[in-house]
Task: structure prediction
Amino acid sequence: MATPLSHTPPSALAKIAVVGLGTMGTGITEVLVKAGRQVVGIDVGEAQAARALAALEASTARAVERGRITGAERAEALSRVRVTTDLTAAADADLVIEVAPESYEVKHQIFRELDGIVRPETILATGTNALSVTRLAADSARPERVLGLHFFNPAPAMKLVEIVSSVLTAPQVVAAVTDLALELGKEPVAVGDRPGFVADGLLFGYLNQAAAMYEARYASREDIDAAMRLGCGLPMGPLALLDLIGVDTARTVLEAMYAESHDRLHAPAPILKQLSEAGLTGRKSGRGFYTYAAPGSATVVPDALTPATDGARAAGREVRSVGVAGSGTMASGIAEVFAKAGYGVVLAARSEEKARAAKARIGTSLARSVDKGRLTAEAAAETLDRITPAGSYDAFADVDLAVEAIAEDLEVKRQLFQTLDKVCKPGAVLATTTSSLPVVACARATTRPQDVIGMHFFNPAPAMKLVEVVRTVLTADDVHATVREVCARIRKHPVDCGDRAGFIVNALLFPYLNNAIKMVQEHYASLDDIDAAMRLGGGYPMGPFELLDVVGLDVSLAIEKVLHREFREPGLAPAPLLEHLVAAGCLGRKTGRGFREYARR
Result:
């Protein structure tokens, strides 16, 4: 029977062995050494062990150059670490952290050997992100002292650590490792044993869907990545992230997730298998979804799939004046964007009063920009002067581009497009800002479907750089070219996609949000832990529940229903918890209560 930890303070985890000195193992070693721990790094390869030590020497030298530590502190830190190829060097460790390749066979072999080497009270931690901690623990001679300790890459910079308990793990072991994580300056999140845990469980489903979207040739790799960076504020697009993680690693994680969930959304996209088996595993091989300057390089170089420049596209139509239909936040924001870019804008609503109120809202927004020093008072006044409010769509008679931003209701939009068809001059481009409805249905409401296109702006339109440009099968080439040219003039980044539910951003974002709700519904993790995991482990600007409450639970449910109806995937069915909250009127911040409660204004 293993010695209980209840009489041993957490600070007794002073000697730590790290088994596996790849990128993650080397990073964990650096974190431990800097925190004052004695560390022995162990790897089967002498060259890899030497590289890990050299990397640690280089990173601490950089820290001295940047003034983060002194030379004496560096020397002291390096004196606390040694590397070896001999696993018996872990004999006197208080904690062993295994970060070997994601293979049961490899990890089982390490744990079996450690059983005969370490002391009875030693804690054994696996750094797996895909394999069952319970299965690894069950084969150990000390299952109650085995748990998961999942750092994120790069370990020195990323704050999140997932601490994974199996049904066999002793509570004292969890407490000791949690205290260690806090002493290391990390934010530990306690989770149960299932493939991917919280952060990767949500992240890899999203990455898999992005790979499938690219494989279906729905959008280019560059547009998918740009859409998620600019539309969601993510530090990296999903395909570039797959290349960084390793396409083979992603495939392994997804296969483990699918084996448990049987959710087709977790079944690895065939392109992941094809790339893996061809050795195109991402940055480490020099080629994956993108091509890199050399194996291990982060520099993307052009290849046969790199899109042609806009110079190779058809010429667009001339646009001098723009009509914006609507009086809400989105319509006001879009009108502001066009007016700032020098366009004359007609802002039309169902009444002149609503149109004037929308213009006044734009004036308030411009005044805030002046107060923050982003705009001069003169420029703000000129921008506002370019906007003409109107109480009838008849005012669109001479506009070159009409953009509707009215209610997300197909019948209402169809009626508006019938009106625009009658009012707007021949050759005018007609655009819808819908985020979830079929653009072609709006186009078919007119006698000129070739002139209709989607321009999906993101809220708040003045701040968000992305516009999804949605072509239908009927959209003319010069209409598509016109909208891309207009996007350049208004300083927005256009991404091309076809006319299907969710386009790029919502089609990838909302299944991820839905899966987060399912985690809470299944009592796997708390709202706070999931939000922390995705902010700290995934680099998301907001956790999923923070974002859901901001977007509105009713809006989120409507989009998820559209996605489920279009793609017919059982895994896209809205989580019952979301439906229950919407039925109860808990819609997020706008009602004062959603997944969390908010102070009433």
Remarks:
- Residues 130 and 195 are 5 Å apart (CA to CA).
